[in-house]
Amino acid sequence: MNVNLSKAMWFKSSHSSSDQDCVEVAFLGADMVSVRDSKDPSGPALVFAPSEWDAFTAGVVDGEFNRLRP
Q1: Are 29 and 21 spatial neighbours (Cβ–Cβ below 8 Å)?
Q2: Whole-angstrom distance between the N-terminal and C-terminal Cα of the chain?
């Protein structure tokens, strides 16, 4: 799928600072959400359906992706 991201309005969390590894998100209308590496804005971006994005963010909130620590 080719998606034109040239007019996307990217943002990152207010908890991020300029020296951290961050991702940026752009909501592309009602049918797509895009994510990219903030350190490489001209690099590749991932594109998700809103339901996929909702499932991912719910998993983050629920701790589904927390690393197990010894």
Answers
A1: no
A2: 41
The tens place of each residue's pLDDT in the chain, 70 residues long, gives 678 898 899 998 777 766 667 889 999 987 899 999 988 888 899 999 999 999 999 998 999 888 766 5
Q: Which two tokens stand for residue 5?
A: 């991201």
Nearest to 26 by CA among 43, 12, 15, 16: 12
Residue with token string 């969390």: 13
| CA 34/CA 45 separation, integer angstroms | 6
Tell me the Cα Rg of the chain.
Answer: 13
**33 beta partners:** 27, 48
